[in-house]
Amino acid sequence: MIAREHIDRLAGTSAAVIDPEGNKIGTLGQLYLDDNTEAPNWATVKTGLFGMSETFVPLTEAVTDGDTIRIPYTKDQVKDAPRADPDGHLSEADEDRLYQHYGLAGAGSFNTGTAGGGFGTAGTGGDFGNAGTAGYTGTEGLSGTAGDEGTGGTASTAGYDTSGPTTDDAMTRSEEQLSVGTETRAAGRARLRKYIVTENVTQTVPVSREEVVIEREPITDANRDAALSGPDLSEEEHEVVLHEERPVVKKETVPVERVRLGTETVTDQETVTEEVRKEQIEADGTGRREQGL
Fold first, then answer.
1. Are the C-beta atoms of 174 and 183 separated by less than 8 Å?
2. Which H or E run includes 7?
3. In the chain, how many domains are there?
4. Is residue 200 part of a domain?
5. Which residue ranges does the record annotate as region Disordered (predicted)?
6. pLDDT tens, 70-112?
7. Residue 110 CB coordination number (10 Å)
8. Which residues lie below 8 Å from residue 241, measured CB to CB, with a gap of 6+?
């Protein structure tokens, strides 16, 4: 089975996909990863004239051998597989039809990760962090019991709760306190997708050509013998081959850069407003004096 360590070597290449007999079915298109394990479980195979058709094949029993991927399916079985749009995600309905076609059991959810041929891993933009736990607010306290006013300016006797059983001589005041925490959640997905565009490139190159030049020289003692070597009067033709240069265009594909997805953490300030409740204690009657806070 093709594992995660094979992704960087295979992604973005045109590795040949062959059947059990070694016959070529097509070339590798895109790798599809399991959402949970990030293992490559599906791939598309480019078949047909110029590789214009893409068909899904499972990688459960596929093996790699150098620049080839061997799958336990025939070319006709791959070409007759149900069509699915290779748009970056397989729907459950598409997966069910593909599983049934290849005689496999189970279903999952798979995404592509293409970008310059690489696939993200944890900490490099491939995954999202697990959600954290939000902070909890404080717990509202239970009210205590009210005490009686003391005799002669003191409060040394036990009070009693007029709404229930006798308690101590103090009442507990409680209030809610706001505790704000944070949680981490997935906010979106980012993908790199490579596609081909065509542009016109104009370059100027110097070219040379030959032109006929007529040279005349007078008869001298040096060339007289050559001039008189032929008949006195005759008809003749002389021919010279002219050459010229023409531009010749060659194209080659060269790597120019590598692009990958990464993440960085930025911190913003966000104000949270929430209502909290608190208890207030007031005393009724005359001749009272507050002590303490």
1. no
2. helix 7-10
3. 2
4. no
5. 140-185, 261-293
6. 999 998 888 888 887 766 677 788 888 888 998 887 544 444 4
7. 21
8. none
For residue 131, the 8-state DSSP code is P
pTM value surpassing 0.85: no
DSSP E strand stretches across the chain: 16-18, 24-34, 40-47, 53-58, 63-65, 68-70, 110-112
Q: Whole-angstrom Cα distance, residue 99 to residue 79?
A: 15
Q: In this structure, what token pair is assigned to residue 257?
A: 């850069």
What is the C-alpha to C-alpha distance for residues 196 and 198, in angstroms, rounded to an integer? 7
CA neighbor of 259 nearest in space, from 198, 177, 192:
192
CB 1 within 8 A of CB 63: yes
Task: Report d(CA 92, CA 78) in Å as an integer.
Answer: 19
Single residue among 123, 143, 178 that ends a domain in this structure: 178
Measuring CA to CA, which residue among 75, 42, 81 is closest to residue 60?
A: 42
Instruction: Specify which residues 43 forms β-bridges with.
Output: 31, 57
Residue 77 sits in the same domain as residue 151: no
**Residues 144, 100 share a domain:** no
Rounded to an integer, what distance in angstroms lies between the CA atom of residue 117 and that of residue 12? 4
Which residue is listed with tokens 């002669």?
Answer: 152
Give the Cα separation of 24 and 145 in Å (integer).
88
The SS3 of residue 44 is: strand
Q: How far is CA 187 from CA 62, 130, 142, 184, 204, in A?
A: 34, 12, 40, 9, 51
Residue 147 lies in a domain: yes
Determine the 3-state secondary structure of 266 from DSSP.
coil
Could you tell me the two tokens for 32?
A: 């599809």
Residue 103 structure tokens: 């005689």
pLDDT tens, residue by residue, 219-266:
999 988 888 888 888 888 889 999 999 999 999 999 999 999 999 999
Alpha carbon distance 18, 22 (integer Å): 5
Range of the domain at 142: 135-178
Domain match, 14 and 80 both? yes
